[in-house]
Write a structure and sequence with these properties.
Helix 4 packs parallel to helix 5 and helix 5 packs antiparallel against helix 9. The strands form two sheets. Strands 8-9-10-7-11-12-13-14 form an eight-stranded mixed beta sheet, with helices on one face. The chain has a six-stranded parallel beta sheet with strand order 3-2-1-4-5-6, with helices on both faces. The model has no long low-confidence stretch (mean pLDDT 95). It folds into two domains: 150 residues, Rossmann fold (3-Layer(aba) Sandwich); 195 residues, Dihydrodipicolinate Reductase, domain 2. It has 370 residues and is α/β, with parallel strands linked by helices. The structure holds NADP nicotinamide-adenine-dinucleotide phosphate (NAP). NADP nicotinamide-adenine-dinucleotide phosphate binds next to helix 1.
């Protein structure tokens, strides 16, 4: 049996997303594509790193990470193969550039940066340093997405796709959120679009582009088309809280309708995306657009009753971060400097679309004001 690659991770920050990422990596599983080792944890204080390890690694005594009271020490640790960055998106570029300067490979949370210009500066630095950098857009790595794309574009199970919709809802009490909260602080990238709207946007791109990186041989084949964008945004306390986007694909006429709001609580389970085709439709079910758990393929609905569909389930013990982690380990083992699934050009394409949405909607971050 072929030996699995091993990736020794340095975790930067001890917030919510770092805890989810680590929880997935340490769960045992029979179908592992790589070994993951939590090699180091770095936070703004040693006390926080210790508390994180005590909470999230207490049942996994074989993970004995070095604990640091700074991010720089994680980057300086020669035993770390790849740094995982879980800081707020307003400081992603800063944290990526520091890791790259230390010669480290990087997997950085979404949104990858505040805007396309910041993202480009990080990729330029990675190119010069010869290190791997990728955006941790976990949705792209899910087997559910790859299987659904095959059904839509190879088997054409709903005919020609003509529309996709997705909405992400979350409630943030903006008026009472502390000024330091990443949901409130514009320097940290506050706003629904970069935080949650990026997922419905990703659903639209994944469902409407017939060719994408990661479709075929794992070498990043296919390039997405940049759609025309029409967008509106609304604000509370100067923070963008609701974004609506229409995407229009000039080559095919396909449309995406993408919305996000931090003004509404969501249910535990819902339809997180729909895809319409000339011969049928697909509903994707899950906890949120970032967390799809199943999808159902329906024939064309012409009568009164909803037709019978065929359901595909993807429930697993992990939340789903393991797929991006596995793919990062495989990229590194293959010597790639970009993710085969989420290459730099895709991150830039998404950031440019969000730049255009914000240009039309009026969301400007303080550092963008000239
Ligand atoms: N993939 C997903 O589904 C998903 C879900 C949630 C969030 N995210 C992304 O992950 C990132 C972090 O979100 P989160 O919910 O984990 O946030 P969080 O719980 O607030 O944690 C963020 C961490 O960043 C550091 N931090 C906090 N405030 C900071 C500041 N003012 N300046 C610099 N660093 C600061 C802190 O690290 P220390 O521990 O070092 O003090 C904190 O623990 C965001 O970019 C978000 O978009 C992704």
């Amino acid at each position: 049996m072929a030996k699995l690659p091993t990736c020794r991770w340095g975790i930067i920050t001890t917030g919510l997303i770092s805890s989810w990422f680590v929880a997935d990596l340490v769960l045992p599983r029979p179908d592992a594509k790589a070994h993951h080792i939590i090699q180091a944890i770095g936070a703004s204080s040693l006390r926080k790193s210790q508390a994180f390890a005590d909470t999230h690694l207490k049942d996994t005594p074989h993970h004995k990470p070095a604990l640091y009271g700074s991010y720089a020490e994680v980057c300086a640790d020669a035993s770390v193969d790849c740094v995982y960055i879980g800081s707020p998106h307003g400081v992603h570029a800063r944290d990526c550039l520091a890791a790259i300067a230390a010669g480290k490979n990087v997997l950085c949370e979404k949104a990858f940066a505040i805007n396309a210009s910041e993202a480009r500066s990080v990729f330029d630095a990675a190119r010069r340093a010869g290190v791997y950098v990728a955006e941790a857009m976990w949705l792209r790595h899910r087997p559910l997405v790859a299987d659904l794309r095959k059904l839509l574009y190879e088997e054409k199970v709903i005919g020609d796709v003509f529309r996709a919709t997705s909405d992400f809802q979350m409630y943030v009490d903006m008026k009472n959120a502390p000024a330091t909260s990443r949901y409130r602080d514009l320097e940290l990238g506050a706003g629904s679009l970069l935080d949650i709207g990026i997922y419905p946007l990703t659903w639209a791109l994944l469902m409407l582009d017939s060719k994408l990186p990661g479709d075929g041989n794992g070498e990043g084949e296919g390039e997405g088309e940049t759609p025309r964008i029409m967008a509106a945004q609304s604000f509370v306390e100067g923070i963008e809280v609701t974004t609506s986007i229409v995407l229009h694909y000039a080559s095919s006429g396909r449309q995406g309708v993408v919305t996000s709001t931090t003004e509404r609580k969501k249910g535990a389970s819902q339809i997180v995306a729909t895809i319409d085709g000339t011969d049928g439709f697909v509903e994707v079910e899950g906890g949120a657009p970032s967390h799809p758990k199943s999808f159902t393929v329906y024939p064309k609905w012409t009568g009164d009753e909803k037709p019978q569909g065929k359901r595909y389930d993807y429930e697993s013990a992990q939340q789903g971060f393991i797929y991006e982690a596995d793919n990062t380990a495989l990229d590194l083992a293959a010597g790639r400097k970009e993710s085969a699934v989420m290459p730099w050009s895709e991150t830039i394409r998404v950031m440019e679309i969000m730049d255009e949405v914000r240009r039309q909607g009026g969301c400007v971050y303080p550092r963008e004001r000239v």
